[in-house]
Specification:
This protein is α+β, with helices and mostly antiparallel strands and 102 residues long. 39% of the residues lie in helices and 28% in strands. The chain starts with a strand and ends with a helix.
C-alpha cells in the first residue's frame, strides 16, 4: 500500500536550489537531479521503512547519483510521509533536525 507524500516548503526550496545549481553547471544535470529525487520519493511512498532512521523518527534515503539525502518522517496513522528536506551531505545535520519541529 502506498503512502501519501507531502513535500514541505523547505524541502521544495532545497530541490529548487539544487536544480538551479546543477543546471548552471551543466545543461540537463538539473533535470537528472530532479528525476533522481522523484524516483526516491516514489520509492519511499511504496517502502516507507526501507531507509534507516538516523535521528529519532527521521529517516534518510540517499539520492542516486547525487550527494544528497532525502530526509523524511512517516506518520503510520495517517499513511503519510512528510519530506522535511533534500539536503546535501556537506550541510549541517542540524538542518533537518530543526525542520522536525512540526
Amino acid at each position: 500500500m502506498s503512502y501519501d507524500v507531502v513535500i514541505l516548503t523547505d524541502a521544495e526550496h532545497d530541490i529548487e536550489d539544487a536544480f538551479i545549481w546543477y543546471e548552471a553547471k551543466k545543461l540537463g544535470l538539473g533535470n537528472a537531479f530532479y528525476k533522481s529525487v522523484n524516483e526516491g520519493v516514489l520509492f519511499i511512498a511504496e517502502n516507507p521503512y526501507s531507509a534507516r532512521a538516523i535521528f529519532k523518527n527521521i529517516r534518510r534515503l540517499v539520492i542516486k547519483k547525487f550527494p544528497f539525502g532525502l530526509y523524511y518522517k512517516v506518520n503510520t496513522r495517517r499513511k503519510e510521509i512528510q519530506i522535511l528536506g533534500v539536503i546535501h551531505f556537506k550541510r549541517s545535520p542540524g538542518t533537518y533536525q530543526k525542520r522536525n519541529k512540526n
